[in-house]
Amino acid sequence: MEAVLPDHLTPLVGEFAWHTLVVDPRIAAESLRHFNLVKSTLDQHSVYTGESLHILELACYAHTTGYDLARELGAQVTLFELSRHTLSKGRELAGRGETQINPRLVVGDFHQLPFEDDSFNYVFICSALHHTWRFERVLEEMMRVLAPGGLVFLENEPTHRGFCFYKFRCNRPHEFTPFEYELEKLGIIRTIAEPYLGSRPESLFGMIENQNMPLGQIVTTIGNACDLVGLGLFPETVMGKLEHRWLQNRFAGAAMLKKDIIENLQERIVEAKKYYTEAEAGMGFSLPAEDEVAAMADGVSQAIAGLQGNPNTLGFRMGLSEIFGAPLQLIARKRDGRQCDPNSPRILDKPMAEKEITVRFPASHFQDKAAAFNQRHNMEKDIYNGFSPLVRKVLTQKSLIPELVHDQLSGLQEIFSEQAWCLTEGEYDLIAMENISHHLISITNRQNKTQLQLPMSHAAGDQFVLLLRIHCELEDKDYFNLKLQCGDRVLDGHAVYKTESILCQSVLSRQEIEQAEQAIQLTLTGIRQVGNGRDRPLLYRIAISYAGLFEMKAENFSQTEQQETVFEESVHDKDDVRNYYA
Fold it and tell me: What's the pTM?
């Protein structure tokens, strides 16, 4: 039986490979924005200050928010992230070393935090909770490590939109296909495809972009352990002219709304079909059928007509957000055994009354928790390893393939031969958000059928995880298929209908690698060619920007579900809320 990467590891590996090279140019601005938001909530609601303030930022990426909190407030800060690379990048951007106050850096999986109960008095996450289907598990972990009286803060998390068919993952707006541009122009792309645009690039890496987190479920999960202090909902950011018109006409009644929704959607869908091509079909894009539109309109019209009362009340805002979706901002305080606060949470842009706090842990409590963690976990280059043993074997060991950098050129040439590949040094923007440093190597193909040789001379394992980050270049409409195989076994494949980056990942046994003489074949074949008078065969272009080969032992892939249950990603969780009204 062929070995496969366990389902719970796939999104982690995808995130790991994505962040190896990607650097968001908005880091500085976003870090400052997060700092100001966190400081504001601390100023208003925290009973802890200075060194008694122990802050945990989850999924911190390469943001420098934690460094600013440590330096400006004197807080004890822990930055938690999946990728060692991004933690190092954040440390570099923050200019670590200018002060003695620096955050503790920890790599790990936020489904299974490596910290003891009640280890922090402020825990926050920004724009990252949606990178899992099991967001409740992450929230529960956040509550567990938060001490009673402490604050939890969520910022800019996408909540489910009932009025969406979720037909496909769309490209980023600046990379829209003509079909996507038309859907946006018609004002229905957030209803047809997804409410928060641009998740396709990440999905090609196996990463999770969960736009189906029900608002009520988030609030309930946090409310099980905390009193809500404030709730910010911003549905207007995902509402267009059509949505605003239907909202204004809510008093016309459900029947009238349903008729108007059906007519407008059907008319626009007919217009959008004119731009639907084989490229969209190949990328898995689709449009809803008439019966789907009718079912959706029925549920949505009733929900809109049911919105009554003052539009500024929390109940109205929550109802509106459940229909059209909304980025969420939330502040809550962990209870200390008392009953729930009887007062409703207030909208964040309104004044919030201070709450009486009956529990305030001494600074020594958090210092002892931090010391216990430091003693239990290994540290390498000032970064603690908080992964489970299984994940640690994949994501933190050194790859058998050298880094694609200039000073590894000789080792790379043994893997990527000069006859098959062109190795060039220089800047190479693989996708819009990437910022590749000048010392990296760009490896492009010279032939449509080529191969790379896996370096096995120092390998001791019996199974291996292969990761290849491949940038596919498309010229005109010369669509092509990319196939990756070892011997006769097809490992991965991708149909290329636009210029984009993908992640190919496979598990290989030593036996099959040796039988294939350590060669991994890459084959590029045309889906169709436009007759443009070419006098020679077309060369399809790909570039490898990351290559990793990691040793695994066979028993790592047969561990029981009980041993790794916290990593399971439930498909049931994501599918149940897809068609909320249909």
Answer: 0.87
